[in-house]
From TrEMBL:
It is an enzyme of class 1 (oxidoreductase). Transmembrane segments: none annotated. GO terms for cellular component: membrane. Keywords: Oxidoreductase. Its EC number is 1.1.1.100. SUPFAM superfamilies: NAD(P)-binding Rossmann-fold domains. This is 3-oxoacyl-[acyl-carrier-protein] reductase FabG. InterPro entries: NAD(P)-bd_dom_sf (IPR036291), SDR_fam (IPR002347).
Length: 271
């Protein structure tokens, strides 16, 4: 899809990946509806973009039903005014690196809500007001294809997002709406704590800058790539994990002691 003058609804717009995506989209000539919980942060992002007057901000907590309905109402207003949204990017997300046994019910619900339920609900709403041809792009994770200790809830949510995106894209075949999925590996954002970053360094787990992810998102939008897994060897591990999961399990098992060490350190900090 040509991004020039396209209206893009971007959730999680004030986070590290969100800001990078917003910058790339604005540079490509798109007009943005930046969605996030903090109005001041959204305005700060908007001020950095090319032609900031062409972009809008909308503060909302998308795990709140009332705020979801407000976003739906705003999108319908744009549709009726002729400023229709052409692309929805479900980018908002959260994770907690911890043993499942240490997690609270509230933290599990929040992680599942923001990483899976909210994108599903936003996608459902978008079917009523998204311009056609249009695109829904869901930001996933390499952990959606590889189960990793300490991230059981996050892996489950992102795996669900991957299959949801795949199924909805097939469901909407010939409707004028594509549903795409982009799965980054570890990314250098505040979503990962300093201890998690230290663990990744010690284990040799590579990470990307938000800008690398943003450029791949734009490439996927322009080429309408159904699914994109970012990073090597992670994309190889995703494929191997589908066919020979025991191979990946053995590789992760060699990291187990250090993974448990860092989880225990993080858990101790929270007590």
């Amino acid at each position: 899809m040509d991004l020039q003058h396209k209206r893009v609804l971007l959730t999680g717009a004030s986070g590290g990946i969100g800001q990078a995506i917003a910058t790339e989209l604005a540079a490509a000539g798109a007009n943005l509806l930046l969605v996030g919980r903090n109005h001041e942060k959204l305005e700060a992002v908007r001020a950095t973009l090319a032609t900031p007057e062409n972009h809008m901000v909308f503060s909302a907590d998308l795990t709140c039903e009332t705020d979801l309905e407000r976003l739906n109402h705003k999108s319908n207003q744009l549709y009726e005014s002729g400023e229709r949204i052409d692309i929805v990017i479900n980018n908002a997300g959260v994770n907690e690196f911890n043993f499942l046994a240490n997690r609270t019910v509230a933290s599990i619900q929040q992680e599942l809500n923001l990483n899976l339920f909210v994108p599903v609900l936003v996608s459902r709403m978008a079917l009523n007001w998204l311009n056609r041809p249009g695109i829904i792009l869901n930001i996933g994770s390499a952990f959606g294809g590889i189960g990793y200790p300490g991230y059981s809830i996050y892996c489950g949510a992102k795996a669900g997002m991957y299959r949801f995106s795949e199924a909805l894209d097939r469901e909407l075949d010939d409707s004028g709406i594509r549903v795409l999925y982009v799965a980054p590996r570890a990314t250098d954002t505040d979503l990962n704590s300093p201890l998690v970053k230290q663990m990744n360094q010690e284990l040799g787990n590579r990470s990307d800058s938000p800008q690398v992810v943003a450029k791949r998102v734009l490439k996927s939008l322009k080429e309408e790539t159904t699914s994109c897994w970012i990073g090597w060897p992670e994309k190889l591990f995703v494929r191997v994990n589908q066919i020979f999961p025991a191979v990946v399990a053995r590789s992760i098992r060699r990291q187990q002691a250090r993974i448990h060490h860092f989880i225990n350190m993080i858990h101790s900090e929270k007590e």
